[in-house]
Write a structure and sequence with these properties.
The complex is a heterodimer of chains A (113) and B (108).
Chain A (H helix, E strand, L loop, with lengths): L3 E4 L2 E4 L5 E7 L5 E7 L5 E8 L2 E5 L6 E7 L2 E6 L8 E8 L8 E2 L3 E5 L1
Parallel strand pairs in A: 2-11
Antiparallel strand pairs in A: 1-3, 3-8, 4-5, 4-9, 5-6, 7-8, 9-10, 9-11
Chain B lengths: L2 E3 L3 E5 L4 E8 L6 E6 L6 E6 L3 E5 L2 E6 L4 E6 L8 E9 L2 E4 L3 E6 L1
The chains are: A mainly beta (113), B mainly beta (108).
Chain lengths: 113, 108
């Protein structure tokens, strides 16, 4: 039983394309997150969703848009992909906003060529 | 500004003890987390401190001093599988601020 799942695990695409990464959690958590981890391994928060409302929107390009059809899902859509978008993207969830513990998905390694 | 500092890399010997330090300067404080991340995998929760003192959990312990803006993660009886990055994160004003992580290398 996977707590937080992401698809796809690997994504290779060309510059200028549009792609989506899906995330689902079956923990009944109220808050979900998207993180970007670059080659230097620094984990950077991108978005948080609490009860289907965006509550954090860090200074990321507007080419990135989170979409939450329901409390258990938070998808990440990226338009006009750039080389600098290459990274590992992690989805996570917690019982409450920045709550006691965040559970991470396995990550999606995005490579833009 | 908000800042979290950790050593970039540490090396220790199997069976030994290692202490990974984390210092923070944040506008607010609502708790400090330690996560472990093996190469190519997702971070996993290790510990949470909100009050001063030592929290022990098996071979791992975490210490917090709020007045000093300081925490450490203590790993005892090191095993090869402990080779990983260790991330310190501070909850500040309902945001979670992450350190860059400490890569721990265990040698036989």
């Amino acid at each position: 039983d996977t707590a937080v799942s992401q698809t796809p695990k690997y994504l290779v695409t060309q510059m200028g394309n549009d792609k989506s990464i899906k995330c689902e959690q079956n923990l009944g958590h109220d808050t979900m997150y998207w993180y970007k981890q670059d080659s230097k391994k620094f984990l950077k928060i991108m978005f948080s969703y609490n009860n289907k409302e965006l509550i954090i929107n860090e200074t990321v390009p507007n080419r990135f848009s989170p979409k939450s059809p329901d409390k258990a899902h938070l998808n990440l859509h990226i338009n006009s992909l750039e080389l600098g978008d290459s990274a590992v993207y992690f989805c996570a969830s917690s019982q409450e906003f920045s709550g006691y513990e965040q559970y991470f998905g396995p990550g999606t390694r995005l490579t833009v060529t | 500004g908000q800042n979290i500092d950790q050593p970039t890399e540490m090396t220790a010997t199997e069976g030994a003890i290692v202490q990974i330090n984390c210092t923070y300067q944040t506008s607010g404080f609502n708790g400090l987390f330690w996560y472990q991340q093996h190469a190519g995998e997702a971070p996993t929760f290790l510990s949470y401190n909100v009050l001063d003192g030592l929290e022990e959990k098996g071979r791992f312990s975490s210490f917090l001093s709020r007045s000093k803006g300081y925490s450490y993660l203590l790993l005892k009886e090191l095993q090869m599988k402990d080779s990983a990055s260790y991330l310190c994160a501070v909850r500040s004003n309902y945001q979670l601020i992450w350190g860059a992580g400490t890569k721990l290398i265990i040698k036989p």
